[in-house]
Amino acid sequence: MPTSYKSSGISPYKDFTTRLKLLISKNPELITTTLSNIFTMRLIGNKTHGDLAEIAISEFINQYMYDFHSTHVGKDLYRAKSHEEDIKIVNEIDKQEFPVSLKAYGDGPLQLSTDKNFKMFPRLEKEGSVISDTDKIAGIFSDSAFSDFRSINVLPLIYDEKSNRCNILVFDYEKAATRTVRISRESKGKGRKHPVFRFYDSDDSYICEVRYGDATANALQRGLWTHTKNGLNYFDSITNGWIDYSHNLVLVELFSNALVSSVAGHQKALEQVKEDIKNLKSKLTQ
């Protein structure tokens, strides 16, 4: 029986991503197929892949990760959500439940939290424009304004469309918190109207940033952000690096035909798909 997070001291989400990374390392073709299908959806619409990624990853967990069960939360429940979540996952061994937010982003800026209550930026402003005192930095990370820093379970599906490659990159909050030595308020720049607080390590390398935006601002104007290129040292690749994907044009044709066919036709197609999944699972290496 796998060791649960209770005995290892790690969070349930960290336990999950560790297990997911192990599964992918042993069965890379499964995630390659799934991600190829997800990013094929960009041929239908530039934003279509994001919503379908939530359904796809939830089903991937249910089909191939035997010790976990996942449920897609759905957009209609957005106002009732207590966390930024797209799917809920239950560890079937210890019955721990935790929310996960899916992000399907291009290789570049990545939003980790919207900071809905607008607490992070004002908290940093209290310390001045440059924060380098060790105790002050520790105080910031332990402050209630940053209470969600380590508990935001974001699973980013990153794609490089020019190279047809993708990566599942998980931001390492613990590493970011322990290695931050300077937080600097930087004025507006190219493509940015408002100031930001950027976090740097001892090598003066970028870690992440808190963007400005009051409580009435668009969610994209505030919150915790990072950059998959500039902050690469603070990510763990669940796919063990970039993997090449290809467009599944049959899937596009299947969707278009399914939209103008009946439930009876859908049922027959579903039976065939389930049989295919069964064959894939028979080859699964745990």
Question: What ranges have pLDDT less than 50 throughout 5 or more consecutive residues?
Answer: 1-7
The number of helices is 9
The total tally of domains equals 1
Structural class label: alpha+beta
Q: Report the count of strand segments.
A: 13
Mean pLDDT: 88
* Series of secondary-structure elements, N-terminal to C-terminal: HHHHEEEEHEHEEHEEEEEEHH
Give the termini distance in whole angstroms: 12 Å
Strand content: 15-25%
What is the overall silhouette? elongated
Measured as a percent range, the helix fraction is 25-40%
Rg over C-alpha atoms, rounded to the nearest angstrom: 20 Å
Sheet having the most strands: 7 strands, mixed
Describe this structure in words.
The protein is of the alpha+beta class. Strand 6 (154-160) and strand 7 (165-171) form a beta hairpin. 35% of the residues lie in helices and 23% in strands. Strands 1, 2, 3, 6, 7, 12 and 13 form a 7-stranded mixed beta sheet that branches. Strands 4-11-10-9-8-5 form a 6-stranded antiparallel beta sheet. The protein has 9 helices and 13 strands. Helix 2 crosses helix 3 and helix 3 (28-40) packs antiparallel against helix 4 (48-64). The longest helix is centred in the C-terminal third of the chain and has 20 residues, at 263-282. The relative contact order is 0.15. It has helices at 5-8, 12-26, 28-40, 48-64, 120-125, 134-142, 173-179, 249-258, 263-282, and strands spanning 68-72, 87-91, 97-106, 109-113, 130-131, 154-160, 165-171, 182-186, 196-200, 206-211, 223-227, 235-237, 243-244. It has one domain (5-246). Residues 1-7 have low confidence and may be disordered. The N and C termini lie close together (12 Å).
